[in-house]
Specification:
The protein has about 100 residues and is of the alpha+beta class. It has one domain. The protein is built from 4 helices and 3 strands, in the order E-H-H-E-E-H-H. Strand 2 and strand 3 form a beta hairpin. The longest helix is centred in the last third of the chain and has 11 residues. The protein starts with a strand and ends in a 15-residue tail after the last helix. The mean pLDDT is about 85. This is AN1-type domain-containing protein.
Length: about 100
C-alpha cells in the first residue's frame, strides 16, 4: 500500500527545506497507534512504528480502545472482545 507515512509527513511539515522532497513510500498500518508508517520508521516489533506508544496513548485518551500503549495491552483487549466460552456439563454416566 502506498500512502504517506505519518512520521515523514510530520518531518515534511516541520522542516520543508530539509524534508520537503520526501516521497510517499510503501506503508503499513501500525497495530498500536493505527497510523501509516514506512519501512524507514518501523519499530522493533512486527507491524509497529518507531514512536513512543506509551506517551502517545497517554496523550490521546479519546482514542483509547482504538490505540494501545503496548502489544500486551492490545492482545489483552482483543482477548476481552472474544466471546467467553462456558463449558457445558457432560452428562453423568450412571452405572447400574
Amino acid at each position: 500500500m502506498t500512502l504517506d507515512c505519518f512520521v515523514c509527513e510530520r518531518m515534511r511539515v516541520g522542516n520543508p527545506g530539509k524534508h520537503g522532497s520526501r516521497a510517499a513510500a510503501s506503508t503499513q498500518r501500525c497495530l498500536l497507534c493505527n497510523r501509516d508508517f514506512c519501512n524507514e520508521h518501523r519499530g522493533n516489533e512486527e507491524s509497529v512504528c518507531e514512536i513512543n506508544h506509551q506517551t502517545y496513548f497517554r496523550q490521546h485518551p479519546d482514542l483509547h480502545g482504538k490505540i494501545y500503549a503496548t502489544m500486551q495491552a492490545r492482545l489483552e483487549a482483543e482477548e476481552a472482545k472474544l466471546p467467553s466460552v462456558v463449558p457445558t456439563e457432560q452428562p453423568s454416566i450412571v452405572k447400574e
